[in-house]
Amino acid sequence: MSIPLQRFGFQLVGKRLVQLVADPALDDNVNRWRFWQCRPTLDHLLALCADVGDEAVPQLIIRRWIPDGMHAVLDLEFLKTS
Fold first, then answer.
1. Contact present, 18 and 9 (Cβ < 8 Å)
2. Which residues partner with 48 through β-bridges?
3. Between the CA atoms of 46, 52, 55 and 61, what dihedral angle is there, to the nearest 10 degrees?
4. What tens digit of pLDDT does each residue of 18-61 get?
5. What is the CA radius of gyration of the chain?
6. Dihedral sign (CA 38, 60, 11, 17)
7. Which of 16, 20, 22, 27 is 20 to 30 Å apart from 5, CA to CA?
């Protein structure tokens, strides 16, 4: 991470929405960032962040890789998104 932790944070809105909050001195467009959180297994929590600029929200495909080289697409419910 290139930004000191004390210069940004996250605001949780309701149960499922997360928004980036950044120090105005950073002069960053916080709306260009998208965040997702899901729980692929009971033992794991996955958090993703992407700089999407002015583009539409990307489609996420999450796969579980199996040791034999195969993979399975996981249909996960996102706990939090932006």
1. no
2. 36
3. -30
4. 988 999 998 888 888 889 999 988 999 999 888 887 777 778 88
5. 15
6. negative
7. 16
One-character DSSP codes across 8-58: EEEEEETTTEEEEEE-GGG---GGGEEEEEEEEETTEEEEEEEE-TTSPPP
One-letter amino acid for residue 38 of the chain: C
- What is residue 1's predicted lDDT score, i.e. its pLDDT? 59
pLDDT at 37: 92
- pLDDT band per the 50, 70, 90 thresholds, residue 64: confident
Q: For the chain, what are the domain ranges? A: 5-81
